[in-house]
């Protein structure tokens, strides 16, 4: 409307007049109408009215005022006196006298309902006005209010006087106070949130529907190492990791930041805890701890999860800071920053605890690497841990990398969490379903290729077995060079193919044959059940 008025009944020169020039024209009566501050000192030929708008009954104005302040450094006696002065100046009686004598408006709207007051000022203007805030802006943010107003004026003038794009300048004005985030809905800002949500729904459906496989007779052979409850536990953990991406949708808040971190770490612990149990009960040498864990498996797993759960609760109640990324003439957004000092302490305890779980898992995987019963499990779990650690590293690097585009920033985080969650599911659960559909002939072909590529493996195992049977300390007999770096007891565990109740080494012989037999036996059973 302003631009239309300028182009049809005005000009750039008239619309850009300074205040002093405008006052001169107003006092001289050389104008038809003028949008200006209210005053009684102008030419009486003019009448004051509300500014016309392009919608009937809707107008706009701006209110300025005088300020009253009290010096904070005065003594208590003077403070009490100053308070009384402020009470007097802002009282209804004083303001009424001010309006009548000076014919100025007051901040007390009740005065405009009094007949006596309305004899001196146009009350209809005040009664017509409806107070509202022109913007939701925090002056304590990265830009102060003066900077905002300066930029606001610049964008408006660019459209009015320089023929700038209306949509572009409106977006720039909106961007000064708007914080962008990804959304499930399709909108003009970005559709990436919608597409990622579709991917999330599809992967979640696959994960949820696959829970039926351990209960089906045809597939039970691939889920024999854990109970159905534990398979559900690891599946739920992976689903929690995947679902953490939902916290990135909508406006970022401290609660969402804390929930995202908790869901990622707890989901990992929940998904991995059944395999910690599996590794613990298959230690190469029978022991009391393994037997105890076997007897109280659910208590053991609940204990692992509960410790992480307690740390998660402590993290949730800790204060959290959200960082505002302000982009000059760009799209601002928020991202999770860090906990308070107390929260950081708990966070580091949680990280240490989870790193300890990973370290224990890796040690047990090494010690049980050749245990026939869990031959595949150790390799699958190692691959899972590697991908989990890489995903977690990429996720944390992204959090602290200076990325000034909210789509790229959130897109990388979501991709990382999808890989983290779904690969966790795929390696620990989904691969068993996939393997059940592989034909026996293809498996035997893969075994032959494996043995062909590792011709010297048998010979190395034979030499190691001979040396360990003779003497664990005899490193000069044909033995392994690795023995000079690691204790023979650890290597003894590493090369065992079954759990032993004694410390003899006979179980180390013919490891390769045991590996081959494991391939053939398990897959023969699978095909027979099909």
TrEMBL record:
GO terms for cellular component: membrane. The keyword Transmembrane helix applies. Pfam families: 7tm_3 (PF00003). Residues 198-422 form the G-protein coupled receptors family 3 profile domain. One of its GO terms (molecular function) is G protein-coupled receptor activity. This is G-protein coupled receptors family 3 profile domain-containing protein. It comes from Anaeromyces robustus. Keywords: Membrane, Transmembrane, Transmembrane helix. InterPro entries: GPCR_3_C (IPR017978). The keyword Flavoprotein does not apply. It is found in: Membrane. Its main location: membrane. It is a multi-pass membrane protein. Gene3D superfamilies: Periplasmic binding protein-like II. The chain crosses the membrane at residues 192-216, 228-249, 261-279, 300-318, 347-367, 379-400, 406-427.
